[in-house]
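Same chain as my last thread, 280 residues:
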Amino acid sequence: MTALLVLPFVSCSKDADEEPMLIVKFKFDPNQVRLNNLGQPSTVAAGNAAQSPIFNSISAHYMELAPNANTQIGQGQIIYHAPETTIGGSNAIDFSQSKLVAQDEVFLKIPLSQVTTGSYEWMRVSLSYQNYQINVRNANVDYAGTLASFVGFNTYIGTFDIDNSTFPVNGNRAQGYWAFALNNFPYSTSGQAPAGATTVPNPIAATSPIPTGSCVVTGKFASNLVIDGTETNDVVVTLSLSVNNSFEWHEVTADGKYEPSIGENVTDMGLRGLIPSYVK
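reply #2:
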């Protein structure tokens, strides 16, 4: 009986030759506070409507740990940078090599020995791709559909599928490109949100701005993440993203229903805030 009680603790310990890892996962929260570009609470713009999508997967282009609010982008601890390509002309994220994960799946796993020791107050995450379910209306009938949303600074896209719909892009697309297909119906379309319209919350914009057109969402740890080099267990970082009314469109008919067939256009697909946390 004693052995059975001890066993769970033994099984959770790492072998002496196993190196502790930094692990990063995503979480999607429709109830998390909805923020604007400056990290302040935000409501849906007049004349627009929005909904909280149901996420299937996400991808990121860049991740950085920042010691304080004065740390300029790129001067913190960069822990991830996705592959890029110039096959489409200008430099762009290579979507074919992007890693897509669902909630709670491991996006990044690197040895803690690769992380510079220090105390980190902020987390920066440049998001590049979102795939989620939204509701649309057509001729007074509501349907469910899947939207692929490219929010990175620039993305080279070959051909990709949403269910049975194929989108042959074969070129670069700027931040805000999207493609949509109805679930279980033979209808698909694509479009481009206005330049500069994608919300990218950054509460430290005054001291540490991000490049225009990027999607570097910034969030603060409740208590600093301290890496001192003596860790024997994995450090798991969870990036909680606000999807609170994160899919926004301009209304033609003011009914809170997204109806593209009457000219209602997507205006914003940006995530609405980041709350990073960790378990050591």
